[in-house]
Structure formats: structure tokens, C-alpha cells
Amino acid sequence: MNTQNLMLIDPHIHMTSRTTDDYARMRQAGIVAIIEPAFWLGQPRTEPGSFKDYFSSLVGWERFRASQFGIKHYCTIGLNSKEANNEPLAEQVMELLPLFVCKEGVVGVGEIGYDDQTPIEDKYFRAQLELAKEVNLPVQVHTPHRDKKAGTIKSMEVCLEHGIAPDMVVIDHNNEETVKDVLDRGFWAAFTIYPNSKMGNERMVEIVKQYGSERIIVNSSADWGVSDPLSVPKTASLMLERGISLEDVRKVCYQNALDSFGKSGQMHESDWLQGSQVDQREKFSDNSVLRGGQTPVVGDVTTDGTLESNIVR
Amino acid sequence: MYQADIYATKTFLKELLERSTTTQGQEWLTKKMELIDAEGATPKDLYLAFSAAPRFVGREPLHLSQHEIEMANLIRPGFNPSRWNAAQTARTLLILSQPYQDGEAFRDTIETLFNTADMGELVALYAALPLLPHPELFRSRAAEGFRTNMGDVFEAVALDNPYPADYMHEDAWNNMVLKTLFVGKPVFRIYGIEKRSNAKLARILSDYAHERWAAGRPVSPELWRPVGPFIDEAILEDIKKLFSQPNELEQEAAALACAESSCTPARELLNAHPQLKSRVENGEISWSLIGDKALAAN
User: Fold this and answer.
1) A26: CB partners within 8 A, 6+ apart
2) Cα separation of A118 and A215, whole Å?
3) Domain of life here (chain B) (predicted)?
4) Mind listing the pLDDT tens digit for each residue in A216-242?
5) For strand A31-37 and strand A169-171, is the pairing parallel, antiparallel, or unpaired?
6) N or C: which end of chain A has fewer CB within 10 A?
7) Is ipTM strictly over 0.95?
8) pLDDT at A42 (0 to 100)
9) Which of A73, A92, A99 to mutate against chain B (most B CBs within 10 Å)?
10) Do B116 and A99 touch (CB under 8 A)?
């Protein structure tokens, strides 16, 4: 795998469910910054306190843990569509959101949108769009797995109905069927390289060849499922191998993520250009990422880009 | 109910902030303060403004003059915002704009902010404790602050903050002083250290010094500051040991501790070191000088 030493951003990855080894390998592969959208945990939460602690970990421990490997961590905060269906709980989570959406490093309201496309999902999607508008933050939209094309179009229409500009909205998990609609309407089109279910990176190469690099963003959505935190570097490498220009790869694997979520005012290139030093002697609430006997790394992180295979089908 | 006149405090802080933020920053803050104070305000108005403050007013340090430090002390004895920044000041103004007649409701709002705060917010909240109405409702919160291992947060509650000296129960106070030494922070920045010294603390600190000595680790000369007035037979042995240490700061600390003791053997011990004694009497040795030097040596 060779990314020609490009700096890369993974703007959608759920690090809470990944290990520190992943962070080390991601940095090795050139990832300098990531965005962690608030997500569900594979099983529904039953108490607002679970959401509160989860949101706190996104702006607290997880930022610290990433910093220990030379990666800048940002997040988006929101009530996901699946859990929006528990209305009494959703009401309480909505009351928590104003406590988090303006915190340092929060670059958007997300990931929100539709799953089953129920009226309750619609209610909380709209309420969160209003919140995003109030605090002038980008929105990160999760498009549904089922009835995807209709759900994607509906998501965009609802955003417009609430007066949110298309360039403030990243529509996620696109595929060959949705990309044209999203780009034609002026929204950011993000693609998730996720084995077996969403998009493979060979398919991604073809999309960039066909649609170019304007407003197209690549991410991994790596989480607790079968997924790969190196999807962005592997896709970048494959695109270069298949003849896509360095500048186009840089846009879809770095610059577009920065330009879209940078509209939050919370994410600047200088954050990592000036701050990639790590000090693993540091602690957060008395916790370290190290375990007994490990020697802390202090100083600049170096990468040589040597990592294994780069194709996800 | 009050530690400081809230109106006077707000006026003072707003004036300080003027130099460290933009006109737009001030206007944003004024608007938010009015919103939070207005009839029909919702918790959301406070939450959003509280978190968002740095992006509108920035994080410039305040830069207080000596006169302003004295003014702060008049508003609230021991209040010293000389290390505050603009965002922190704005956040303090926002919480002081919250209605406070109902103490329990006020406490619940502030606790909600604490429970979801990030690091910058925690620093602002803890450092604001000496300005809040209903101070007696925040004792357990302050004790929670002493438990943190985030350096800046611990400093905000333990150092340059008069709330602990004025409101914390003795055990919590003692724990805070011990922890300040434990984490290597400067004891001379603990407000009210003399006033709140006590025999139990002296015993705890002596035990701690013994632990350090047994482990072959250095003992901060500042450790002896709250010990002086409580020198007894056991602690006298510690002081003798200090006088025999090669580090001059430790000898100076021994001399100061003896000078603050009313126990005869301690006075005699000081008399046996006439040079140090005269330096103490001339004011050439003080705890803040020792603290400064100890900090510089670290």
C-alpha cells in the first residue's frame, strides 16, 4: 500500500469500538484526523444517562486516546435514527444535546436521518436539523440501508425544507444509485468503504473516475461490525494505483472532509500541522492508554506507509 | 446566601473582559446574559451559550493590573482571576446571569453543567465557585474537584481559589492540601493555607514526608508550611532532620516552621541556627519565596 505520503482524514469512524492498535496503524497509514459521529452501540440504550456518558466520552476520553497516537479527534453529536424510535427516551436525549453540540471539537450534528423512515424518526431528524441551524453547525446524515434511494432524497428535501444550505450537509453511505442525486442537489456525497454491505474500494475508484472529486468524500464508518479502520488509506492507495491523480485523491480522502466539516469553525488544518507530537506519559482522569511495562512514546510520530493489502470487495 | 455582590461582580468581570475580547464578542455575551436572565428563558439558552462562549469571545488571557487584583479581592476576599482567560470569564458571567433565588434550582442547573462539562468548562466552573450564590450547596462538588487527575481542573478548584478555605470541611480540606503536594503543584497558591492549618493535617503531612523519605524521594519544602504551628515531639524529629538536609530550601523551611511554633523545643532548635533565625526575622525567608524556588527547581 502506497499513499505517496498524503495526509488523510477519515471523517466517519466509530473509534469507541476500536482498539488502540487501530489508532497506531491508522497513523502509520497517514491518517492525521478523524471524525467520530455519535452512533448506536449495537443494542439500544435504555437510559438517558447512557447517552450522556457516551457523548462525554466522545468529547473526552476518545479525544485523549487519539491524541496519544498523533491523531486529531473530532466528533458529531446527535440522536441516531434507530434509537429515535423510543420516544420517551428520545425526548430526554434531545434535552441533553444542547449540552454537547457546542463543545470544543464538535464539528456537526450527526449522524442523524432515517433508518425505518418512521414518523418518529422524522420528528427527531427535523428537531435536530433545527438545532444544527440554531448553532450553525454542519449536519451529517445517515442514509437508510433499506429503501435507500427514496430515503436519501427525502433526507435532502427535509434539510432544504428546514432552510439548511446543501453545502452544510454531508449525505453519508452513498452508492452508485444515489450519488448523482446528491451531487446534482449541491450536497456533499460521502461514501463508506465497508466490506460486504456498503461500498467496496474498487467500486469507489470507478465512482471517482465517473464523477470526479468535487464534493465526494471517502470514509470507513469502521465500528463494532466487520469493518476496516484502514479503508480510507487503502482506497487512496488503490485510486493512485488505478491512475486517479494525486490531487483528486487528496480531495476525496482529505480536503473535502476538511472543507465540509471545517464549516463548524472547530476543525483547522493547523490543528494537526502544529500538533502531531505525542506524549504517552500523559493521563486522562488518571487513565493511560498504556498497560503494565509498556514504554511511553514521546515526540513526533513517523510513518513509513508499509501496510498490507488494499482491496475491499 | 451570597459570597459576593453579584451585580458588582458582573460589572467588574465585564470590564476585565473588554480588553481581552472583540466588540462582537462583548455584544454576543451581553445578548446571551440578557437571554438567560429573561422571563421564559430555558435551560437550553444557558447550555448552548456556556459551551459556545470560546468561539465568540476567544481565549485571550485577562492581563490584570495590580490595582485590579486588589479590586477583585475587595469584591470577594481571596478572589483572584489573574490567570483567567476570556472564555472562562464569559462562562462565569453566563452562570451568574442565571436566576438564583431558588437555591436548589440554581444548584441543579450548575450541576448539570458540571456533569457534562469538557475540560475548559470544568476549569471555568470550579474557578467560579467563590462567586456563586448558595455556596454551601457546592461542598460535595468541590470535593469531587479535588479527586480529579486533570491538572488544570485540579488547579482551578485548589489554587488561587478561596472557596475551599471558606467552605470545605476539615477532612476534605486536608485531602486537598495533601493532594496538591502529591501532584507537585505549588502549595503557596492555596488560599487560606495558614487559616485552615490543623493538627490532623500536620500529622498527615508528617506521615507523607516519612513515606517519601523511606522511598528515597525528595520532599517538597512547602510541605512544612501548614505544619509549623503544630510541631509536637514527633514532628520535632522531622524538623531536626530538615535542618540537617543538604538542600538549603529545606533548612529554610525548617527555620520558618520553628518560627511559627509556640513549642519551646522548636524555638530552641531555631536558636541553635542563628544565621537562619536572623534571616527569618529580617523577612529574607518566606513561604512564598520557598514556594517560588521549589517550583523553579522542578
Assistant:
1) A10, A34, A69, A71, A229, A230, A233
2) 29
3) Bacteria
4) 999 999 999 889 999 999 999 999 999
5) unpaired
6) C
7) no
8) 82
9) A99
10) yes
Cβ–Cβ below 8 Å for B116 and A104: no
Sequential DSSP letters for B20-85: TS-HHHHHHHHHHHHHHHSTT--HHHHHHHHHHHHHHH---B----HHHHHHHHHHSTT---TT-B
Number of CB pairs < 8 Å for A and B? 45
Is B88 near chain A, with CB under 8 Å?
Answer: no
Name the burial class of residue A123, with classes exposed (0-12), middle (13-18) and buried (19+) by CB atoms within 10 angstroms of its CB: middle
Q: What are phi and psi of A222, to 5 degrees?
A: -55, 140
**Residue A226 CB coordination number (10 Å):** 10
What residues does each domain of chain A span?
Answer: 8-275
CATH number of A8-275: 3.20.20.140
Which helix or strand (DSSP H or E) is residue A269 part of?
helix A269-273
> Hey, what amino acid is at A168?
M
The residue-averaged pLDDT of B174-193 equals 94
* % of chain B exceeding 70 in pLDDT: 100
% of residues, chain A, pLDDT over 90? 75
Q: Where are the domains of chain B?
A: 1-168, 169-297
Per-residue pLDDT for A156 more than 70? yes
- Judge contact between A100 and A88, C-beta under 8 A: no
Contact list in B for residue A59 (CB cut-off 8 A) is 118
Hey, are the CB atoms on B116 and A134 less than 8 Å from each other? no
Please tell me the distance from the alpha carbon of residue B114 to that of residue B27, in angstroms, as a whole number.
26
Q: CA torsion B127→B131→B136→B141, rounded to 10°?
A: -20
pLDDT over threshold 60, residue A305? no
Which residue type, as a one-letter code, is found at position A171?
A: I
Please give the backbone phi and psi of residue A188, each rounded to the nearest 5 degrees, phi first: -75, 135
pLDDT band at A75 (very low <50, low <70, confident <90, very high): very high
- Is the predicted pLDDT of residue A107 greater than 80, yes or no? yes
